[in-house]
Amino acid sequence: MEKAEALRHLEDVISGYKNNYAPQNITVYQYWARVVRVVDGDTLELEIELGFDLKIRNSLRLIGLNTPETYGVKKGSEEYRKGMEAKEFVQNFVRENDWVEVEIYRGKKEKYGRWLGQVYKNGESLNVTLLTEELAEKL
């Protein structure tokens, strides 16, 4: 997938979320966060800096994409292999204890209670990179 197409896709997905408080699109919150661990190709556990010496630890689901599963599938399966490939890519993109920028979208958590967002390292979007490297599919 071309980078421009990945960017358009993410913009479309993000604009589709509405908050419950106003008729506008959801609000973006931007934070610094420390990577605690990479759960799988589309989920990270982060320690998010809120300011004023406040931190929270939360799971973040990368918005607009889906990577193959590594949990609940047979370890010898093609899906597991592709899921591990995506996870390893993410682990190389952001390592444990790395500082990243995150954009979190207010108004909705996904069905497993994770916040939806984008992760940036040195200005590069992990979401866009996973799509352009064809390690994830559009969601």
Structure in words:
By secondary structure, the chain is an alpha+beta fold. It has one domain (3-138): OB fold (Dihydrolipoamide Acetyltransferase, E2P), CATH 2.40.50. The protein is 26% helix and 40% strand. The chain has three helices and eight strands. Strands 1-2-3-6-5 form a five-stranded mixed barrel. A two-stranded antiparallel ribbon has the order 4-8. Strand 5 (99-109) and strand 6 (115-121) form a beta hairpin. Helix 1 crosses helix 3. The chain is globular and about 45 Å long. The mean pLDDT is 90.
Number of domains: 1
The order of strands across the largest sheet is 1-2-3-6-5
Query: What is the residue-mean pLDDT, rounded to a whole number?
Result: 90
Instruction: Pick out the low-confidence regions.
Output: none
Q: Quickly name the level 1 CATH class.
A: Mainly Beta
Counting DSSP E segments of at least 2 residues, the number of strands comes to 8
Distance between the terminal alpha carbons, to the nearest Å? 14 Å
Kindly report the CATH topology: OB fold (Dihydrolipoamide Acetyltransferase, E2P)
Biggest beta-sheet profile = 5 strands, mixed, barrel
> Strand percentage, roughly?
35-45%
Brief account:
The chain has helices at 3-15, 78-93, 126-132, and strands at residues 28-40, 43-51, 54-62, 65-66, 99-109, 115-121, 124-125, 137-138.
